[in-house]
Amino acid sequence: MFKTRIIKALLAALWFMVLTFPIVGIQVNTTARNINWRWDRIASMGIGIFVLALLWNWCFERKALGLPIIKKLPDSFHYSFNELQNRPLFKKGLPIAILAAMLLMPLVSSIYQTNIMISAMVYVILALGLNIIVGLAGQLVLGYAAFYAVGAYTYGLLYHYFGLTFWACLPLGGLAAVIAGFLLGLPVLGLRGDYLAIVTLGFGEIVRLLLLSQGDITGGPRGISNIPRPSFFGMKMTLDQVTNYTYYLVLAGVLITILVISRLKNSRIGLALQALREDEIACEAMGINTTRIKLTAFMLCSCWAGFAGVIFAAKTTYLNPASFTFMDSAMILSMVVLGGMGSISGVVLAAMLLILAPEYLRAFSEYRMLLFGAVMVLMMIFRPQGIIAGAHRDYHISENIREKASPEDEEGNADSAERASA
Amino acid sequence: MNPVLEVKKLSRYFGGLKAVSEVDLSIAPNEIVALIGPNGAGKTTFFNCITGIYEPSEGEVLLHANGTTTSLNGKKPHAITALGLARTFQNIRLFQEMTVLENVMVGFHCRTSAGIMGALLHTPAALREEQETIDQAYGLLRSVNLHNSYAAKARNLPYGAQRRLEIARALATSPAVLLLDEPAAGMNPFETRELETLVQRIREAHKLCVLLIEHDMNIVMSMSDRIYVMEYGSCIAEGTPMEIRHNPKVIKAYLGEESHA
Fold it and tell me: Do B218 and B252 share a domain, yes or no?
């Protein structure tokens, strides 16, 4: 057992050394016309891969045996944590503490940090919106940034040509995105899985290219500048004040989004969407019009992207198509996947992490995509349900229904059925 | 008595292949009817034509429920369910990651009406409807003996319980006809017997008729009021279990020459 592990790791190391030899091991010096053989680098590559391969195999063996990767914490700790989680003080206190910290934050932090937090919260809104169609309904949508762009450009263009304000454009941006979602969704939502992903991916690129090429209207790559920040009854505000104001506005947006999504998730429509995710054929057999329910979810999620777009335009005061690339769509999708499909707290956490971590870890910016990719792969293998798996709701059954005496001999039957199938 | 479900000369072709050809079938109120036949006889295709997964090539499917007669031809599966025809699946198709109670609540979808606005604003009507759905779903779970595990995930249930949950979920759509596709597949004799009493109890309690496809001869013979036998896409015999048992055509085609069942 031990021997095979070593041999496996050695083979992996050898393979990597051969594979990376031309890139890592050979340095051609064109001026001196000679070749530097960098054996030291090849050797460190080999050692590094050997260690990683050992670790990797060990993790997979644990996973195959169903053991946790990280050693289990002592039982007493687990017990006390569960205890803590169920305490009403903790359950209610934690959200209140977080909210209080969020409310106080702009008063103590710099404009720069407040601005970062605003972008992070815009992404929280976007990710929660996408969570409806991807997390709840299980439909893979890859061009989400397109709806975001529709919302943002609605504000940008309506301001530019007609001088409409932020508050007038917020509902209009949502409406425009809903219309875009409806027009795209109507023909496309009959498609399943991969096909839907490809079509929405295409749609994302089409919107971006249209914004680029229709320079006469949209300003093309130059974009639209001088978009006003959100106003407060026409009051004049300093940059500091308006930033704080925007912050609170976006925070309110996040709270409303969380409320809406959590209510939707637990509603009749939300249940139907989850059923759709689990099994489309059975869902249809339950009398649910799957096309209609998909379209509803799609429109709702594009509406949220539209709102987020308007807020984004008002926050940056400048728009160009480069803000709405496939990378952005992929980023929002990763937030949903990393956070946990259908989980609200998980998605909020993941969105915060993915936006804030790069800002505060500038030193590692070169390795950002590398780390990001590694984290995604590891998550998919070892924790596919995401950081925080979606919680199940506790249903309250009316007392009179619950206490009704069981008819006939059912109890006996149930017991023997369990035994028979065990 | 007027039939609830009436199938007239139903045919379904796949290219040149006649999977189902000119099958007539009718189910009277409160009747349990079985559809049997060797593998590949066209039973499942017939089922799929009735439930709207396939459209019949020829013939007609009529549902007489709630005082009206509706043709099911060309209707989508969800519309057919809404009209009062519910089904279970041969290979269990539960909503695995959802709880047992939620599975049944999904079944109530086509009988309830709360929309997005009601859900977001928590209107009294929406909340009341939701509580009613929860209570009724719990009641259905009680009738199939699953009320104690209502908060469990569907995929964690034992096999027999999953089958019962599928039946409860189908009942939630308040059907006039319940279609069971091999409900006893993979069950042990004890569970099979239990299923039999369950189906009979459901028929009494919900006043519905049942059409089942089944391979288990014991359950078919003891439970059905009438049996249809299919072979090569056609119906070769119809009658009570006693008649079918002694029908020479059936014995020859289906049970085999030497069978003395």
Answer: yes
Mark yes or no for CB contact B120/A284 under 8 Å. Answer: no
Whether residues A406 and B93 touch (CB distance < 8 A) is answered with: no
Do residue B78 and residue A288 have CB atoms under 8 angstroms apart? yes
Decide if A146 contacts A180 (C-beta within 8 A).
yes
- Closest residue in A to B93 (Cα) is A282
Query: Nearest Cα to B89, choosing from B209, B170, B30?
Result: B170
Residue for token digits 């995930």? B153
Q: Among all chains, which residue has been given the structure tokens 């209140």?
A: A96
| Among chain A residues, CA nearest to B110 | A287
| A415 Ramachandran zone, left/alpha/beta (phi>0; psi -120 to 50) | alpha
Looking at CA atoms only, how far is residue B28 from chain A in angstroms?
23
> Could you tell me if B33 and B170 are in contact, meaning their C-beta atoms sit under 8 angstroms apart?
no
Are residues B148 and A285, on separate chains, in Cβ contact within 8 Å? Answer: no
State how far the Cα of A355 lies from the Cα of A352, in Å rounded to an integer.
5
Task: Give B193 to chain A, closest Cα distance, Å.
Answer: 11
- pLDDT tens-digit map of A137-191: 989 899 899 999 999 999 999 999 998 888 999 999 999 999 999 999 888 877 7
Contact B142 A417 (CB under 8 A): no
Same domain, B188 and B261: yes
What 3-state DSSP class applies to A78?
A: helix
With CB atoms and an 8 Å threshold, state whether B191 touches A420.
Answer: yes
Question: Which contacts qualify for B189-195: CB closer than 8 Å, 24 or more apart?
Answer: B190/A416, B190/A420, B191/A417, B191/A420, B191/A421, B191/B160, B191/B163, B192/B216, B192/B218, B192/B219, B194/A413, B194/A417, B194/B160, B195/B160, B195/B163, B195/B164, B195/B219
Structure tokens that stand for B107 in this block: 């079944």
**DSSP string computed for A179-193:** HHHHHHHHHHTTS-H
**Other beta carbons less than 10 A from residue A149's beta carbon:** 31
Q: How far is B238 from chain A (nearest CA, A)?
A: 28
Q: Does A181 share its domain with A264?
A: yes
pLDDT in tens, B1-32: 688 999 999 999 988 888 898 899 999 999 99
Query: Minimal Cα–Cα distance from B146 to chain A, Å?
Result: 8
Predicted ipTM of the assembly: 0.89
Q: What is the CATH number for B6?
A: 3.40.50.300
- How many domains are there within chain B? 2
Angle at B169 between CA B165 and CA B175, to 5 degrees: 135
Q: Is the dihedral of CA B215, B142, B203, B173 positive or negative?
A: negative
**Closest chain A CA to residue B144:** A410
Distance from the Cα of B244 to chain A's closest Cα (Å) equals 32
In a domain, B89, yes or no: no
* Interchain contact, B169 vs A286, CB within 8 Å: yes
Interface test with A, best of B47, B98, B109 (most A CBs within 10 A): B109
Which residues, 6 or more positions from B39, have their beta carbon under 8 angstroms from its beta carbon?
Answer: none
Residue in this structure with the two tokens 């956070």, named with its chain if needed: A339
User: Are B68 and B192 found together in one domain?
Assistant: yes
